[in-house]
Specification:
- By secondary structure, the protein is of the alpha+beta class.
- It has one domain.
- Helix content is 41%, strand content 13%.
- It has a three-stranded antiparallel sheet.
- The longest helix has 32 residues.
- The relative contact order is 0.13.
Length: 87
């Protein structure tokens, strides 16, 4: 009786397929995380969301201060705030 030299372990094909699948998942996650970063930076922008950067909202009738988007108006040391037009 001869001994079978093949083992019962994982075949090389399975290892290669698993490595490729892992590589695809890593690439997709990098793409997804990069796009969510762009999306989150756009969602906090005053002008992109229909607001206007002003020195004060109280000076303009029909505008309310929206502090969540103030940071986009204060780039470069500006003291402006984000104002949203109230209909």
């Amino acid at each position: 009786m001869g001994m079978n030299s093949k083992g019962q372990g994982i075949s090389m094909n399975v290892i290669i397929i698993a490595a490729l699948a892992l590589l695809v998942l890593v690439v997709l996650s990098i793409i997804f995380l990069g796009r969510t970063g762009q999306w989150s930076s756009q969602t906090v922008d005053c002008v992109t969301n229909g607001g206007t950067c002003m020195d004060s909202c109280s000076d303009q009738p029909g505008y309310n201060h929206y502090p969540a988007w103030d940071a986009s108006c204060q780039e470069g040391g500006s003291e402006q705030v984000c104002c949203i037009r109230v209909a």
